[in-house]
């Protein structure tokens, strides 16, 4: 993915302001933050579950 410079970020903000208006931007930011947090926690749970399965499988092999 190419780097987005300062000009690109300013352009994205201006387009967002034009599309949604200044009153909707805080709501969109909060919704985006919540979505990111849920994704991050889901990913962490998935990785933790995979690690537990791997550990459980290794323990089962050592018992035999």
Tell me what you see in this structure.
It is a single chain. By secondary structure, the protein is an all-alpha fold. It contains two helices and no strands. It has helices spanning about 5-20, 25-64. The protein is elongated and about 65 Å long. The mean pLDDT is about 85.
List the main descriptive attributes of the protein structure presented here.
mainly alpha, elongated, 64 residues, 2 helices, 0% strand
Structure, briefly:
The chain is mostly helical. Helix content is 84%, strand content 0%.
Number of strands: 0
Rg on CA atoms, Å: 21 Å
Instruction: Give start-end ranges of low-pLDDT stretches.
Output: none
Shape: elongated
In which range does the helix fraction lie?
Answer: over 70%
Enumerate how many helices there are, as a single number: 2
Q: Biggest sheet, open or closed, and with what strands and sense?
A: none
Q: Whole-Å distance between the termini? A: 48 Å
Order of helices and strands: HH
Rounded mean pLDDT is 83
Q: Look at the helices and sheets and give the structural class.
A: mainly alpha
Q: Beta-strand percentage?
A: under 5%
